[in-house]
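[[Local backbone shapes]]
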Amino acid sequence: MPVQPRRAADAAASPETVRLDGVGFGYGDGPEVLRDVNLTLPRGSFHFLTGPSGAGKSTLLKLLTLTARPTRGRLQLFGEEAGAAPRRALPAFRRRMGVVFQDFRLLDHLSAFENAALPLRLAGARPESYADDVAEMLEWVGLEARAQTCPPALSGGEKQRLAIARAVIAGPELIVADEPTGNVDAAMAARLLKLFQSLNRLGATVLIATHDEALAARSGAAVLSLDGGRVRETAA
């Protein structure tokens, strides 16, 4: 199991991990994909994000991970202004996140073990200090026998599980996942959900975009629905 989510040193840390006020986003001169989005994710909360294809779920996640910026409105992360933050400030925000991308974004020349360990390595940790944690995480996602295998030799489901392991290994404060169970069977989806729930119990704020409404319903977590460019809470 990964380490406990990191905490900001500031004792007066914001009770909100994510806050969007009147956020809009559009591509070029086209209509806005997101319109007047008001969203608050309290620290330590767990939410699913649902909605039809093309509703803007991936776009909203891009805003939260700062790979896109709001066209208008205000975006705050960890109690700090993020939507209009200078580019040099973005890495500090991203180091506090774990992101599971739909296209995995694994490094093909690194083994599964090395991919999973990458956030720890980039943070300056020594290999001997994290080897056991990485091995345990790979076992949790069912990849212990594939630890020395590089991504080109992994199946789509294995790549998905490896991407999740890499995203959560460092105990991020905010976990954002885009369809993290889309390429795995029902049993593994349930196992991965337990992993996200365990991290949430340790204090991480979790937001999972999914088409699997049954999985969201079984989780007992709050469900946000994105449709027509706006977000509303549909269940708790």
